């Protein structure tokens, strides 16, 4: 299958060897020449900076024709409040439609549930008055309405080179008793492998370690593994939520490698 890894960053580079092993025809893209230089040698790669100028070149149209596009563009919420995200996705939609791309796998975020409390799942009504939830939902809709799209709402990502013991900037933990909604990168990679194998589009799935673990349990262990200072309990807020992420196991031949986020902390790969 022809697969384009759009925005091949931290997660995409972990996904790459699995896709190679599965025998897919790959193309990697980054936003700049500097980003391109960070990619492994020997795999076709090129700069693709969104939003694209029109008209599309015949080369790009041919590359995207009948391809499955894995869209790993990040909203950039923390730094820019998502500025430019929807413009980039709109540009991508125009390209995929013009090229008659086969399908899309879109990395979204459980941030789509921002403002909600309690248990949430793929059928929960989103609070679209919340700016973050609105942005992520609009991005999902752009792709889902354009072509067959499997949307993955990812929990907080961790894995090789991204240790949660380094996530907190001070020694105070808010909502210590609330659920931690995290997912290890290896489970995201396995989900993508299964989705490609099953051609499971359209679809919408949460990806998040399904077992309950409190934020206090998780971050205490993460900090201890790095021999960092213990945390102090901070304020408790009203917006505590647990992301339920079992649908993907019920509908696809997928099993979490790490049902528990505590177990995933021990991963050394």
From TrEMBL:
<dbReference type="InterPro" id="IPR036291">
    <property type="entry name" value="NAD(P)-bd_dom_sf"/>
</dbReference>
<protein>
    <submittedName>
        <fullName>Epimerase</fullName>
    </submittedName>
</protein>
<dbReference type="InterPro" id="IPR051783">
    <property type="entry name" value="NAD(P)-dependent_oxidoreduct"/>
</dbReference>
């Amino acid at each position: 299958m022809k697969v384009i890894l759009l925005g091949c960053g931290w997660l995409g580079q972990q996904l790459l060897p699995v896709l190679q092993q599965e025998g897919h025809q790959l193309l990697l893209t980054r936003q700049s020449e500097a980003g391109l230089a960070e990619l492994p040698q020997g795999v076709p790669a090129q700069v693709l900076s969104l939003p694209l100028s029109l008209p599309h070149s015949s080369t790009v149209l041919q590359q995207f024709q009948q391809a499955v596009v894995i869209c790993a563009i990040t909203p950039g919420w923390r730094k820019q409040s998502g500025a430019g995200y929807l413009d980039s996705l709109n540009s991508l939609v125009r390209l995929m439609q013009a090229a008659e791309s086969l399908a899309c796998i879109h990395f979204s975020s459980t941030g789509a549930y921002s403002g909600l409390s309690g248990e949430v799942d793929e059928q929960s009504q989103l609070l679209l008055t919340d700016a973050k939830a609105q942005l992520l939902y609009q991005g999902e809709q752009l792709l889902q309405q354009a072509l067959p799209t499997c949307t993955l709402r990812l929990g907080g990502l961790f894995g090789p080179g991204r240790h949660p013991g380094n996530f907190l900037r001070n020694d105070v933990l808010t909502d210590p008793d609330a659920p931690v909604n995290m997912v290890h990168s290896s489970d995201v990679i396995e989900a993508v492998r299964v989705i490609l194998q099953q051609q499971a589009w359209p679809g919408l799935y949460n990806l998040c370690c399904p077992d309950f673990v409190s934020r206090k349990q998780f971050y205490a262990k993460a900090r201890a593994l790095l021999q960092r200072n213990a945390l102090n309990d901070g304020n408790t807020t009203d917006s505590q939520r647990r992301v339920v992420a079992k649908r993907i196991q019920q509908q696809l031949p997928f099993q979490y490698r790490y049902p528990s986020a505590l177990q995933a902390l021990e991963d050394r790969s």
